[in-house]
């Protein structure tokens, strides 16, 4: 039975780096996936290698890259808030939570993907994911979606325990790489090196692709407990 899935991230490419493979598996299974991207990554430091973007052109470029990645992933419902990059931490959490609730009211998701609050490394990651948690807790318990959160801090396993989910996405690894390639301004330098390694060591392709073949999530328990 098809499910309603919501992914909420601050920047273009978060959805791909965090869980493109998982989202591709959802869309291939017939699930309806909505993606909220809060900013256009206007303040990103990477502008291609060699540079092919400017500070002025970067937000437009990153929006196009995001739309291209969504096509690869199979996301038809993309919602852009177009807030200022690196400023979400200064937004009122209640305001952000209300915006999230508006999406909940429209989509009625069964599963939500976002960062794990306090373990997102980037202030935007933590601010938005905290607002998502706040929004979920404002819902009646019977209507709360499952929260699958990505923790990227170095000590996440020590603090949170092992992730609750380790998703094998090896069956869609090429689609995931294509989604990464769509975010050319942010990923070209990484993927060029990876492709050069695979070309030089074709027998080790599986090993070189292994880091991209699994995606991990912690389940955030909105009762205040961490489920691992």
From TrEMBL:
Pfam families in the record, alphabetically? Answer: PIG-L (PF02585)
SUPFAM superfamilies of this UniProt entry?
Answer: LmbE-like
Q: Which cofactor does it need?
A: Zn(2+)
Q: Which residues form a coiled coil?
A: none
Official protein name in the record: Bacillithiol biosynthesis deacetylase BshB2
């Amino acid at each position: 039975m098809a499910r309603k899935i919501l992914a909420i991230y601050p920047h273009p490419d978060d959805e791909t780096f965090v869980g493109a493979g998982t989202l591709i598996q959802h869309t291939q299974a017939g699930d309806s996936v909505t993606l909220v991207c809060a900013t256009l990554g206007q303040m990103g430091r990477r502008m291609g290698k060699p540079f092919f973007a400017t500070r002025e052109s970067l937000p437009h470029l990153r929006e196009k890259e995001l739309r291209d990645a969504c096509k690869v992933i199979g996301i038809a419902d993309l919602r852009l808030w177009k807030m200022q990059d690196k400023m979400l931490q200064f937004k009122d959490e209640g305001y952000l939570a209300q915006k999230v609730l508006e999406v909940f009211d429209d989509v009625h998701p069964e599963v939500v993907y976002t960062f794990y609050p306090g373990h997102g490394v980037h202030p935007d990651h933590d601010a938005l994911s905290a607002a998502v948690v706040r929004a979920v807790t404002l819902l009646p318990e019977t209507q709360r979606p499952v929260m699958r959160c990505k923790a990227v801090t170095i000590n996440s396993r020590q603090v949170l325990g092992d992730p609750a989910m380790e998703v094998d996405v090896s069956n869609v690894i090429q689609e995931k790489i294509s989604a990464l390639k769509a975010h050319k301004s942010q990923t070209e330098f990484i993927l060029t090196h990876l492709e050069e390694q695979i070309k030089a060591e074709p027998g080790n392709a599986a090993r070189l692709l292994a880091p991209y073949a699994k995606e991990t999530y912690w389940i955030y328990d909105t009762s205040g407990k961490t489920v691992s």
